[in-house]
Amino acid sequence: MAEGRGDATPVSTAALGPIVEIASRRFAVPFQCPCCGAAPDSELTIPVMRAKGRALAEDSAKRLDFPYCRRCLAHVEAFQGAGVVSAGITLAGLLLGVAVALLVHSIAGVVMIVAALGVAYGLLMNRRAQAAAKCSPACPSADTAVTYFGWSGSSSSFAFRSPTYTARFAEDNTTKLVNASRGLSRLLEGHRVARLAVPTPASTMVVPPPRTGREWIERIEKASTRIARRHDLHNALEMIQDTTERSELLRAATRAELAAVRTKLERLS
Ligand SMILES: [Zn+2]
Ligand SMILES: [Zn+2]
Q: Ligand 2 centroid vs 139 CA: distance in angstroms?
């Protein structure tokens, strides 16, 4: 969807959220929607973004899949689609305006360009407002909530628009966190204090019995996305110690992964 952004001009990162830098190519991704925080039931591919003053290694991943919820996926698609339509109208208006200026009259050409810019801007604002209307109150923005700056050769960098998700992601990767800015450190401290101030009401919680190997396999087979399946497999392998059951879990996950690849191949052939 937004794949083209991978080669876009370097951007200023200020509006995207504090930079989270992880000294590894491997990192933990919290299993929640990075936009609204809901349970994810889909995925969003985030293309790498070049940023001013930030090196991007040749062998950096060009895109990453993040768990996302369908509702947020819909507002991101609407928001980014708005920009594409308006860019098309602007380009068409410019070309037509130049042609009219050369062939008919320069003022007529300028009027045409100004009119096209006005229509494109009006449409952009209108469609962005429609995208914003699809957001939940917890969404920090109608645009993508995740920015991936790629692998620099020594660290992977990210920015998240949601302060809560920023703190969760940084906490899940604490041991590999490097170059934390003052803003990020303050955010992490605030998150820690807020959690201590709101203790979990343990007395009202009912803890269900742990899942059996069979139940984990069913969960893995029914997982709606690849990320959800890997998340379940990871948790299952932490809980299940029996060697036979562990290899059954791995077999179930492999079967499901291969089935997805086979479906893709069948669609291509
Ligand atoms: Zn969401
Ligand atoms: Zn959202």
A: 4
- Cβ atoms of residues 3 and 45 within 8 Å: yes
Q: Which sequence spans correspond to the domains of the chain?
A: 3-69+143-189, 73-133, 213-261
In a 3-state reduction of DSSP, which class is residue 265? helix
Q: Which residues surround ligand 1, an ion (CB under 5 A)?
A: 33, 35-36, 38, 69, 72
Q: What is the pLDDT of residue 13?
A: 60
Establish how many alpha carbons lie within 13 A of residue 261's alpha carbon, considering only the half-sphere containing its beta carbon. 6
How confident is the model over 152-199, as pLDDT tens digits?
Answer: 888 999 999 999 999 999 999 999 999 888 888 888 888 888 878 776
CA distance 101 to 120: 20
Other beta carbons within 10 angstroms of residue 124's beta carbon come to 17
ipTM metric: 0.98
